Amino acid sequence: MPKLQTITTNFTAGEFAPRLRARVDLDKYNASAEELRNCVVLRQGGVTIRPPFKFLGETRSALGAIALVPFVFSREDAYVIEMSGGGLSRFWKNGQLIESSPGVPYEALTFGGFGGPSERLDYASQGDTMIFVGGTFYRPWRLRRFADNDWRNDPVPLNPGPMAENGLYPVSNITFSAATGSGVTATASAAGTFRPADVGRTISLGGGLATIKGYTSGTMVTVDITSALPAVFAGSGDWRINGTPQATLTPSAASPIGATITMTLGTAGWRPEDVGNWVQVNGGYVKITVYTSETVVSGVITKELVGITAAPADAWVLLTPVFNANDGYPQAVTFYQGRLWFASTRRYPQSIWGSKSGLFFDFTPGGVDDGDAIYKTIDSDDQSPIEYLRGVRNLGAFSLGREFEIRGSLDKPITPTSTDITPQSRFGCERVRPENAATELLFVQRAGKVIRAITQEGPEGFISRDISVFSDHLLRQGVRCMSFQQSPEQVLWIATTDGKLVAVTYNPEQNTVAFCSGETDGSVEWLATIPEGDVDTTYAQVRRTVGGVDVWHIEKLDWGDWLNTERIESPHDSFINQTFSPAETVIANLDHLEGKTVSVKADGVKLPGPFVVTGGEITLPTPASEVSVGLPYTARIKIQPPEVGTGTGTSQGQAVSTHITKVRFYKTQAANVNGEDIPFRQLDTNVLDTPPPVFTGIKRVQGLGWRDGEDPLIIEQREPYPWTVLGIIREFTVNPG
Predict the structure, then answer these.
(1) If we measure between CA atoms, which residue out of 338, 301, 349 comes closest to residue 415?
(2) What range defines the domain where residue 91 resides?
């Protein structure tokens, strides 16, 4: 029966998944724990209690916000936007709700009418401007900040937006005499729906397709159905005339840029709604400005034509806006290399559009110069709608089915004539906004239960690796949202779909990927991180049950004065601090904790309870000047079963007797090991009314006798005091019999 000693020097591998219990062969095994609950692994390797949630206020809506959105202009001007249904929002800064007048929260519309599934929301900011997109039903929206309480919004002023040969959606119903066959009659309900130049164009209805073969009148044409129609009737907006009018087009002049010219069709085909559309003809582009008749329109040259020769049908193109209510609006947006980028509409799910360089709202078509607008469609052997666009070193497109890298040539950025789109991996992206972390990008793999890191690997592209594989049990319910905090510790905060809070210390420089489980009295639903002073602050929407009713709070993870003290002062959730002069016994303003059993620190000392908030108040046994009240939570480390050689094999599964456990603490005031409180103060007169001393060093705990198998060792912090564990030494005996 050898007497052995082991040391746990760090926890940089985090909480290991149950599937890894037998993997004692992994180097990470001795740097992991069986459980790390409500903890954060420090980048140096130790473990501290996670920062508590500080109560800031209730949400504007009784049903909570649909998203929390960070808006960062500078270190001094950073905001969290609390978006409610219909796009109406409030703004938080430095832990305070911005007001329009004393006691009146300032509100503004941030995303016109948005109230749909928040998972579709994407946004990007540049300076004082933020661009929102929401997918099929919501046109891109612009939000501009002029002051803390002056935010203005409007549709993104695209001039012009992306254009393509989309055809048109007539404002008319249509009825077919049959769903299949040739010589079928198509009748429109509105006069002037058809033009003679529509002969040769096609009609789309669902998955069906019909070619127009004859023109009878403005309400009637004959068609040959080449793909069976799903129905013989369609309402306005449900069917489309594809392509460009089938007629010759003659421009009156070819130059200069800015000149107004006429464009004449050989067969009637223009419509009043063509004003604002573009024509690509004879190598140039013309923007239609005036409708004169069904054969004549006027327009302004935006790119010179090579001549005024009449262009036959199919030799010129009528371009219409890509973003519209029928074809859908983009669901991905980003700023990259001086351009505004959009991607993925309902009709063009694998397409991307980049503005002119430095002109974010100008998508003028047809340019070939490096600074001109860009339009590309990703070639893929499957239909993979783009979910997000994000810059790593190059631009990344994250789709439902795979990941792509978009870059220019070796000596220039992305341009209209120098764009290389290369598939990189085939994992797929969930509808959770990716997060930049140091030099990498973290995204949630399709199905929402794996987090992957994108790392640039030289000129060949990027690689994607699973960073959650060792702690996959913590994401089993799926990821709802995530937010990366750079300082005071590098932590990726994750809200899971079942309301848990997962902390991931992510420091690739030190090869640290440490997942910690966590929860609060309620559900964490949204997270957003912004810089505030010298640290990053993570705001959260937390749903709690107060007085038997679900309520939604805006709270923030509060590290306190971590950079100076390196310890979290009052670890209890939804807490508020109050100061009194003179000292008070009745503590009010606790309505947000009504009916809850709370923990209380008075003048730095944890008071014995229980204290139940009644009528928004609690009563202390003695007056206090500084009081902190919140919901208790427990930080917990459960150490992995020791693995050492015994001379006859492994120590796993053997009878183990731990003689002494030594825990190295750092700036800690209370803790217990296997349920046994560790004394942090020497009893003396007048010490029970003062806080425990801050301790740094080693505490010894005697062993608990023989146990079969795993000899669990659990270190906890149940009190609202600072607690950090740097390492653990165990002396034990193994009986290999």
Answers:
(1) 338
(2) 53-155
